């Protein structure tokens, strides 16, 4: 245990949490609009290969992240068309989207196995980066770490202080009432779904361009499902999404450090720890059903009929 550097641990935690944080905050906006999209894993893996391919072909990580956001949003619009226009079941469509994304990414990624992407540069804070403890812990990361935190702040401010955010929440609480007041429920939900897809795509690209960085089939390894769980854990509140993602990222990094330190615990148990803790937290939260019901958008997962 003495070989684990707490400063490096926290710095690594921020990097490990970023993909899940991006996917979770996008899904939070989608669910605030009353839509349940279980295709987060599929959008993340498509974003991972799209961003990787774009970065490799263009030589620019920025183009890679932009391509990933576009790919994730495009895939999410398929879900939006099926669920909001054709009124298909949201749960079944989301699961199908995940299966499609996993298969499609494996097909596209065949030519990129073993290829190295262009490096993503770190943010330059000048002398601030040399401040003891704070510098190496918080000020030597790539731009996407800070962008993810800014997205959290922007979503919080949007939902809390803007009229558009209030309308989005109203659609999630009662789409029929929002429709009666003249709001375009389907349009708002499609925009929210596209935003969620773009964020999931960014999260996937962060995995393949920064966290790993390489393309490996199935590299999301359940990150999309964890992002869905974190939205529930956070009670649909942006800053709690940040806390939940950092908690999961922290446990993940800690178990890797414990493995490296040779702690006398079977590797299999350490590898299970992040997922077991996530399940435990969800069980504890779900135990208070009244509180969970109060926080969840009332129209979550319900089909909206424009003629109603």
UniProtKB/TrEMBL annotation:
Q: Which GO terms describe its cellular component?
A: plasma membrane
UniProt-recorded name of the protein:
ABC transporter permease
> Pfam families of this UniProt entry?
BPD_transp_2
Q: Where are the transmembrane segments?
A: 6-26, 38-56, 62-82, 94-113, 143-159, 190-209, 215-234, 241-261, 267-285
Keyword presence, Nucleus: no
What PANTHER family is this protein classified in?
ABC TRANSPORTER PERMEASE PROTEIN (PTHR43370:SF2), SUGAR ABC TRANSPORTER INTEGRAL MEMBRANE PROTEIN-RELATED (PTHR43370)
Q: What subcellular locations does the record give?
A: Cell membrane
UniProt KW Nucleotide-binding keyword: no
Annotated GO molecular function terms are: transmembrane transporter activity
Q: Which organism is it from?
A: Frigidibacter albus
Q: How does it sit in the membrane?
A: Multi-pass membrane protein
